[in-house]
């Protein structure tokens, strides 16, 4: 489907007519071949796909009445998955797994199994919403601080007036620890009947929730998107494009939210990324 990437949509001049996507999305043969040969990076099997290919795949599956689970692992998710076998198993069972973090892209290249590039949840919120608007698939946003999902829904509808948002909610803290809390979230989704759900609760909470919900919503696609809903709402600013391309988005976030992110990024993620890249480099040089 000839959709623009989120980067192109973000950089577009307001009021500029957008090219319409093709009405019949079909993953091409190259995409299908890549799906059959996932590459192993940082202990996870990753689909070597572009953002546009991911959108095409999801739209084609929705047309067939098939749901799915999309995971976008970055270094933080890889670090957590390495220490939590249950969370790692949830990722392994996901229908699509694409590299969100640049260290994963670099590691795959060092191993001789390159992926086309970084595909972030923050970008997919926009590009998948564009596709959902065109094909009339209802969307649900779940996550973020109170009120943020509704702000994100408003901004998405400003960009794509035909987008049908059937729900925007932030479940209360600890909802997943009680059957009643989980049931409220599930019942709201069942009543809204979305075909595409963005779940921004952080890993592994969001993906554990998705794994439970899929049985009740088998024709719905779920995207575990972390902070993407907050970004879409404009509540938190994303890094400039040059920092994203250079793999420095984590540094921008750290400088803006040091109290919340310093321990995670400096004690967990940065050492993990350095070990990952060093290991891949040695394997490249001496294998």
Automatic annotation (TrEMBL):
Residues 1-32 are annotated as: Disordered. The keyword Repressor does not apply. Keywords: Glycosyltransferase, Membrane, Transferase, Transmembrane, Transmembrane helix. Pfam families: Glyco_tran_WecG (PF03808). Coiled coil: none annotated. GO terms for molecular function: hexosyltransferase activity. The keyword Transmembrane applies. InterPro entries: WecG_TagA_CpsF (IPR004629). The chain crosses the membrane at residues 219-236. It comes from Streptosporangium carneum. It comes from the Bacteria. This is Glycosyltransferase. Residues 1-10, 19-30 have a biased composition (Basic and acidic residues).
């Amino acid at each position: 489907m000839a959709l623009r990437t989120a980067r192109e949509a973000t950089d577009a001049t307001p009021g500029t007519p957008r090219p319409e996507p093709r009405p019949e999305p079909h993953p091409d043969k190259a995409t299908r071949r890549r799906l059959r040969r996932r590459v192993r990076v940082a202990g996870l099997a990753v689909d070597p796909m572009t953002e546009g290919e991911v959108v095409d795949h999801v739209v084609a599956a929705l047309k067939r009445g098939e749901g799915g689970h999309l995971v976008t692992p970055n270094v933080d998710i890889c670090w957590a998955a390495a220490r939590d076998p249950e969370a790692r198993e949830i990722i392994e069972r996901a229908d699509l797994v694409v590299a969100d973090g640049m260290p994963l892209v670099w590691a795959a290249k060092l191993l001789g199994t390159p992926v086309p590039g970084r595909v972030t949840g923050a970008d997919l919120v926009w590009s998948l919403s564009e596709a959902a608007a065109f094909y009339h698939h209802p969307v649900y946003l779940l996550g973020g601080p109170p009120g943020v999902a509704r702000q994100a829904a408003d901004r998405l509808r400003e960009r794509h007036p035909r987008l049908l948002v059937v729900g925007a909610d932030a479940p209360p803290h600890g909802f997943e620890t009680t059957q009643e809390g989980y049931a409220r979230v599930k019942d709201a989704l069942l009543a809204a009947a979305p075909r595409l759900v963005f779940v921004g609760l952080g890993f592994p909470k969001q993906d554990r929730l998705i794994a439970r919900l899929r049985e009740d919503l088998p024709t719905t696609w779920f995207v575990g998107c972390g902070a993407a809903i907050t970004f879409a709402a404009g509540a938190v600013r994303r890094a400039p494009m040059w920092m994203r391309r250079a793999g420095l988005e984590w540094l921008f976030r750290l400088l803006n939210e040091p109290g919340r992110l310093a321990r995670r990024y400096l004690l967990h993620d940065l050492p993990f990324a350095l070990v990952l890249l060093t290991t891949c480099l040695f394997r490249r040089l001496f294998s």
